[in-house]
UniProtKB/TrEMBL annotation:
It comes from the Bacteria. This is 2-dehydro-3-deoxygalactonokinase. One of its GO terms (biological process) is D-galactonate catabolic process. GO terms for molecular function: 2-dehydro-3-deoxygalactonokinase activity. Keywords: Kinase, Transferase. It comes from Rhodococcus wratislaviensis (Tsukamurella wratislaviensis). InterPro entries: DGOK (IPR007729), DGOK_C (IPR042257), DGOK_N (IPR042258).
Amino acid sequence: MIQNTLDTSPPRLIALDWGTSSQRAWLLGDGGRILDVRRPDFGLLGTTGDDPESRTRAYEAAFDEACGDWIAAAPDLPAIACGMVGSAQGWREAGYLTTPTDLAIGAGDLTAVPHPRGVLHLVPGMRVAPAADGSVPGDVMRGEETQIIGALGLLPPTDGPLTIVLPGTHSKWARVEDHKIVSFATAMSGELYGLVMAHGILGRTATTGVRDDAAFGRGLTTGTSVPSRGLPAELFGARALVLDGLLDPASLPDYVSGVIIADEVRHLLPHYAAGHRILLCGNADLCRRYAAGLRVHGMAADIVAEEAAAQGLWRVAIDAGLLDPDASTIPEKETL
């Protein structure tokens, strides 16, 4: 548990970002300020079986474990959640909004889930509808739409299009115009890295060691080279470098990270960020790696806090009428 002992405002909202493998729960006070945060190790994968009743009980127990004492102290406190908890395999399916779509999510867009202690409101995901001729592939996101809302709320107003990149297991590249998500794309870069390093030959080649930023930069250069041999070939090339004594086995994970991120950036940058202002939102260390990948292409990016989801949930709760907008103030906007 992390408590903000400097903020004495009363609690206003329980907010959760509940994903596939993890959960973050915030107790928010006036203006969406974080009073308390918890990170239980329970995501969608923590539920067992396909039986809806047993899955419901598992989610109720996990929610009570994370937030039960907050609810006991303030039974009328509204609660809202985003992420995979609203998927078909989650607590209750919350549906999708189809792009292009406004980022003001209203009461009619939320899915109410009754539970023994009250009601949890689920934020819908967003989808890109595939084109009938196959020219535009479909795509989906859950949770990232709320991070985007929070990130935009933390920034001074901006004119013109904006590209928001959310690095992670399934990285998102979203184009935002006039406070609307126009389109987005997903890259499974984080998951690919995890699979390659945990279950492939590269994982057996690597050894543990300290972080090697030089090896990461070297991987970026390899992954950005023109003409490219393609990601599968460049990944296997990492093993050859180790066998030839040209790369320390302890540096292999950082090198592979650079190759994968470089490949993602080189393919998605022309489609989603050409000439746009770029904003990176998420884990600070991972955002810095993506910023380095963008600099290879001469692109600069701003970075906003990993806790943007909490501010996004606060904004959605206000727009949906779960909170009185006059009862508290919005946090001061960051200066970039």
